[in-house]
Specification:
- The chain is of the alpha/beta class and about 375 residues long.
- It is about 40% helix and about 5% strand.
- The chain is built from 15 helices and seven strands.
- It has helices at about 15-20, 25-30, 45-50, 55-70, 70-90, 115, 125-135, 140-155, 160-170, 175-185, 195-205, 220, 280-285, 290-300, 360-370, and strands at about 110, 235, 255-260, 275-280, 310, 325-330, 340-345.
- The strands form two sheets. Strands 5-4-3-6-7 form a five-stranded parallel sheet. A two-stranded antiparallel sheet has the order 1-2.
- Helix 4 (about 55-70) packs antiparallel against helix 5 (about 70-90) and helix 9 (about 160-170) packs antiparallel against helix 10 (about 175-185).
- It is globular and about 70 Å long.
- The termini are far apart.
């Protein structure tokens, strides 16, 4: 059996999580977030797993610094909502090239060995990949650098890259990860994202380099062939081991609250008397595998919910569920097949009409939604 114990820079106790929320500095975030040593919140793992909601972070920012100073932070929070809404609208469509096919693809399954081994020679990127493996967290700017190197310079299709990255991230959100890789690859944006060495040196001053294959102008960068160090590729294996189920009994006529790894909020219907079950479906994790470190993190967050039992299996096989008086869960695209009633997602912009299509770009979404701030 896999050992799920691991060290993490991210606390899992709810009091420590709330303390981290209270410690955010929205004004400093707004001016430094693009720098690898900037004042980022590191709240994304808790947002992904539903321990905190987008309104929780917005309200904490407003209380700390006011609306004006919190503008940039809320703007970035809206990206997460935008990606979620795109997933809700497009469904399976987000797992294929959305706006256009990715250009100049030489490989659709394997990944450059130098990227997997963090030996590209680009220190800022190699260090970020090591951080991915060791901590499960990478600064957003460094994620973009890795993505552009792998998808655009190494000419690898974004899909296997997104799966590899998602596997290790503690904050791996299916919609945000998938659509961010598509955005960088130019399949969900107006053009491919690229960055040269000057850009890396500016935002990661601890790893300034010169003379690398990225140390060229942007015009020269777009004309480069695949660097030799990125030419060798290999398939990547992403094994996922699930924990054992707890012993649990659903009494006939009782109410049942079904939790998912994306709704581990201790306050959700906390005052109700119900059987609480965290459902881990093998079919989902076969399609979207996660690392042992990530599984450890999920199980530790689940401990904040009193009485929560773990069930490993397809939800349709949960014993006693058919005899429950009421079954309820939080709506999420990956759990649309779950039985019972579903509470609505907790949106930053709940005013967005269900009948209104999600725009094809984030800025169009933002311009429509920011009036509700």
């Amino acid at each position: 059996m896999t050992n799920f114990s691991t060290e993490s820079d991210f606390p899992t106790d709810i009091d420590a999580i709330r303390a981290r929320l209270a410690a955010i500095d929205p004004a400093h975030y707004g001016t430094t977030r693009n720098f690898l040593d900037g004042a980022v919140t590191q709240l994304s793992p808790y947002l992904t797993h539903g321990v905190l909601t987008l309104p929780d972070v917005r309200d904490a920012a407003y209380a700390k610094a006011g609306k004006r100073a919190s503008y940039k932070l809320v703007f970035e929070l809206a990206w997460r909502e935008y990606f979620q809404r795109v997933w809700w609208e497009k469904g399976e469509g987000i797992f294929t090239d959305i706006k256009r096919e990715q250009e100049a693809v030489r490989e659709r399954a394997a990944i450059p060995a130098a990227i997997l081994d963090a030996t590209t020679g680009i220190e800022a990127i190699d260090n970020s990949i090591q951080s991915l493996y060791e901590t499960g967290y990478v600064h957003n700017h460094a994620r973009m650098w890795t993505a552009m190197l792998a998808a655009n310079m190494a000419q690898i299709h974004w899909k296997p890259l997104a799966s590899w990255y998602y596997y290790y991230l503690l904050d791996g959100d299916i919609a945000s990860n998938t659509l961010s890789w598509q955005w960088v690859a130019g399949t969900f944006s107006s053009k491919k994202y690229v960055a040269n060495q000057d850009n890396l040196n500016k935002f990661d001053p601890d790893h300034r380099q010169h003379g690398t294959f990225l140390d060229v102008t942007y015009e020269e960068l777009t004309l480069l062939s695949v660097p030799r160090v990125l030419q060798e590729t290999r398939p990547v294996e992403l094994p996922c081991t699930l924990p054992a189920s707890d012993k649990l009994t659903i009494a006939p006529g009782s109410d049942v609250l079904l939790y998912s790894p994306w709704n581990l909020n201790p306050t959700w219907r906390a005052e109700e008397t119900a059987t609480r079950v965290l459902v881990l479906e093998p079919s989902h994790f076969k399609r979207f595998p996660i690392s042992p470190k990530r599984m450890t993190f999920v199980l530790a967050l689940a401990k904040n919910i009193p009485g929560l039992k773990i069930f490993v299996g397809e939800v349709s096989t949960l014993p006693g569920l058919e005899g429950a008086a009421e079954v309820r869960s939080r709506a999420y695209p990956a759990t649309g097949h779950w039985p019972g009633d579903k509470d609505a997602p907790v949106w930053l912009f709940p005013q967005w009409p269900d009948s209104k299509a999600v725009p094809g770009s984030f800025m169009s979404f933002w311009k429509s939604a920011e009036r509700w701030l």
